[in-house]
Specification:
This protein is 21% helix and 40% strand. By secondary structure, it is α/β, with parallel strands linked by helices. It has a 4-stranded mixed sheet, covered by helices on one side. A 4-stranded mixed sheet has the order 5-8-7-6, with helices on one face. A hairpin with a 5-residue loop joins strand 7 and strand 8.
């Protein structure tokens, strides 16, 4: 049996409107709907669900956006800085892997990266 495509991730956030504004503003995600303390955003083929609660973030937890070039990583780094997001790692050049990580308002780590030869269809690292 083949695994279906990943549809969405669900992030627990302290303020759904603040988080939605962050993802809409920085990543141009589109708001699909809101129901109380729940907002669903469109992000390419994988959506982001935001639900109010107390975030419990493991230090190694992150999600990433694989980009098509090093130049795009640099362009996104500039955009992230202009947006005021906290850059917590990088940019770092590991030869065939170029990356940086920023944080959203609740502290979720978001990696932006380019890898010369993606590891698998998802580019899992």
């Amino acid at each position: 049996m083949e695994t279906p495509a990943l549809n969405h991730i669900n992030l627990i956030v302290t303020d759904v409107e603040r988080s939605a504004s962050f993802y809409e503003g920085l990543f141009a995600m589109k708001r699909l709907f809101r129901e109380g303390d729940f907002i669903f955003l469109a992000s390419g083929s994988t959506d982001v669900a935001l639900r109010r609660g107390e975030p419990m973030i493991h230090p190694k937890f992150h999600f990433g956006f694989r980009l098509d070039s090093r130049e795009l990583v640099d362009a996104w780094l500039e955009r992230v800085r202009e947006h005021g997001a906290d850059v917590t790692h990088g940019p770092r050049d590991y030869g065939s892997y170029y990356t940086f990580t920023c944080r959203d308002p609740d502290g979720y780590a978001i990696e932006m990266y380019f890898e010369q030869e993606p590891r698998g269809a998802s580019g899992a690292v």
